[in-house]
Write a structure and sequence with these properties.
Its EC number is 3.4.19.12. This protein is α+β, with helices and mostly antiparallel strands. It has ten helices and seven strands. It folds into three domains: 224 residues, Peptidase C12, ubiquitin carboxyl-terminal hydrolase (Ubiquitin C-terminal Hydrolase UCH-l3, 3-Layer(aba) Sandwich); 54 residues; 26 residues, no CATH class.
Length: 343
């Protein structure tokens, strides 16, 4: 699923524009790596039940994709007096995926995560700027934009009109926002607003995921029944590193577990490490496929089929099969003939 085409301000020139980004944990995890940040990854969340998150802790923030509507009212108070929160306005179309991710990364203070040179330098440069100026700097940050645009979908044809769809178009548009706890309070970070949105206090004994749940559910309920175009992802510490650290602790430090129990736990953790390695391999493979331009190959195949007279027979066969399938579905969905009904 792609992000919203909802940037503020005018569209940049084509060479400096930002592409749409798919809402996928593999894509966001590679964005993190591309920015030079280590120790973090993104996982998809399928439920808002807090117990379902236990295996991913620590969870540093959530990224939520939803259908964007104009004049979306904030669910809490927009704050302007929090200099300790890094917040940037969205000043360019299609940038909300990267902005949602950076809103989390640039506000995290955790030993697991190293921002790296690019993000540390950007944060330091923009630290004293206002949100609009930060947004302008982000729009023109070449390294970040290049990583973002590495997921641009290949285009077969160049259009004469570079204007992006607006909110007046019939197509649905989607938007990414972030949620995270900062110093005992829950914030929504959305570049379409003027500042961070303070949603609630987080009690000492509360899991912040319990606090954020009703806000996400409330946003979902604003839409019509049957609307399922939502996606929720969590920014977490690198799971492979986490499991490897747990193994090292069991190997080198005293443990209340017996030798047999300890070996069983180590074996389980090594299985988790292998699964994480396989996941990273799969992400790399999927992202390579996303970047590969298959269009010239498809065009050439269609051209060769046309020249050898095979294209139209394939088309007619497919057309016939589609019609038969439609007739079968119609027959299955229509009421039974009264004469065939049981008394």
């Amino acid at each position: 699923m792609a992000e919203a085409n909802t940037g503020a301000g005018s569209m940049e020139e084509p060479e400096s524009s930002w592409c749409l980004i798919e809402s996928d944990p593999g894509v966001f995890t590679e964005l993190i790596r591309g920015f030079g940040c280590t120790g973090a990854q993104v996982e998809e969340i399928w439920t808002l039940e807090v117990d379902a998150f236990r295996h991913l802790e620590p969870i540093h923030g959530l990224i939520f994709l939803f259908k964007w509507v104009q004049d979306d009212k904030p669910a809490g108070r927009v704050v302007h007096d929090r200099s300790d929160i890094f917040f940037a306005r969205q000043m360019i179309q299609n940038a909300c995926a990267t902005q949602a991710l950076l809103s989390l990364l640039l506000n995290i203070r955790h030993p697991d995560i190293d921002l790296g040179h690019t993000l540390n330098s950007f944060k330091h440069f923009c630290q004293e700027l206002d949100p609009v100026s930060r947004g302008i700097c982000l729009s023109n940050e070449e390294k970040i934009r290049t990583v973002h645009n590495s997921f641009a979908r290949p285009e077969l044809f160049e259009l004469d009109t570079p204007d992006a769809p607006s909110e007046d178009d019939d197509d649905d548009v989607y938007h990414f926002v972030s949620y995270m706890p900062i110093k005992g309070r829950l914030f929504e970070l959305d570049g379409m607003h003027e500042g961070p949105i303070e949603l609630a206090d987080i009690g000492q004994d509360q899991n912040w995921l319990q606090v954020v749940r009703p806000f996400i559910e409330a946003r979902m309920q604003r839409y019509s029944v049957g609307e399922i175009h939502f996606n929720l992802m969590a920014l977490v510490s690198d799971r492979q590193r986490y499991y490897e650290r747990q193994i090292q602790l069991l190997v080198h430090q005293p443990s209340p577990l017996s030798h047999t129990e300890r070996q069983a736990e180590i074996a389980k953790l090594r299985t988790f490490v292998t699964l994480e390695q396989e996941k990273k391999r799969r992400y790399r493979q999927e992202n390579q496929r996303r970047r590969h331009n298959y269009l010239p190959f498809i065009v050439e195949v269609l051209k060769q089929l046309g020249e050898t007279g095979q294209l139209m027979p394939i088309y007619e066969k497919a057309k016939k099969q589609a019609k038969e399938q439609a007739n079968q579905e119609q027959a299955c969905n229509s009421p039974k003939n009264e004469a065939n009904q049981e008394p």
